[in-house]
Amino acid sequence: MLYRISKEVEEALKNNKPVVALESTIISHGMPYPKNVETALNVERIIRENGCVPATIGIIEGIPVIGMSNDEIELFGKTKGILKVSRRDLPVVMAKKLWGATTVATTMICASLAGIEVFVTGGIGGVHKGAQETFDISADLQELANTNVTVVCAGAKAILDLPLTLEYLETLGVPVLGYKSENLGAFYSKDSGLKLDYKMDSCKEIAQTIFYKRALGLKGGLLISNPIPDKYSLPNDKINKFIDEALLDAKSQGIKGKDITPFLLKHIADHTKGESLDANIQLVYNNAIIGSQIAKEYASLVDKK
Ligand code: PSU
Ligand code: MN
Question: Is the pTM of this model over 0.90?
Answer without folding.
Answer: yes
